[in-house]
Amino acid sequence: MRTKRLIILAIVVIAIFSAGCNDKVNEEALSWNQKGNEYYSYGLDEEAIGAYEKATEIDPEYADAWYNMGEIHLEHGDYEEALVAFDNVVELEPKNSSAWYYKSLSLANIGENQGSRQSFEGAIVALDKAIELDSQNETLWDTKTWVLTELGSYEEAIESCDKVIDINPENADAWNMKGSLLHELGRTEEAQICKDKAKKLGYGS
To answer: Which sign does the torsion angle of CA 62, 143, 117, 13 carry?
Structure first.
């Protein structure tokens, strides 16, 4: 079963990182990152990416610049480029749950576009890392449900969907999704209960 939605970004507005608090960053790299932030604030995304690239050329360990660059690539659907950027971030900052999440989105969208099971499986690995760091994040579990569904792992997807509902019992989308997954497994009575619950919570209205 393929979901009707494709998760691209959970956060619509990109939160550009500021590295001013990191006195270990090369000053020239810091300057280029700040230029990238300014370009982005004016909607000059290509120029912003160029500035972030310059920052990472000067200081390849400048995680914030990689992160900023990756978010813009992800926003524009340049998933391969986004993956490279977030690979660098998680290598430099392995406890950055947001970077693991964005890495998972990059891989999942590559999997969606290319029909690559390997990419979807990689997305699960990245999501599990993010969840390990932020287990009560509803969005992480919701995304994991989607990816597991794309892999055809419906039982595991239901478990993930249950985590979403545990965190937010009023999530109508999650109740509806659980109903769809149960229906795929032939558990029609349980599926209908979930679908009814979703409607009561406003799904489809």
So the answer is: negative
Q: Which domains occur in the chain, in start order? A: 1-131 (1.25.40.10), 135-205 (1.25.40.10)
**Cβ neighbours of residue 200 closer than 8 Å, sequence gap 6 or more:** none
Q: What is the pTM of this model?
A: 0.88
Angstrom CA distances, 33 to 38, 90, 92, 133, stand at 9, 19, 17, 27
Q: Which helix (H) or strand (E) holds 194?
A: helix 188-200
Q: What is the mean pLDDT of the chain?
A: 90
Encode 33-101 in three state secondary structure: HHHHHHHHHCCCHHHHHHHHHHHHHHCCCCHHHHHHHHHHHHHCCCHHHHHHHHHHHHHHCCCCHHHHH
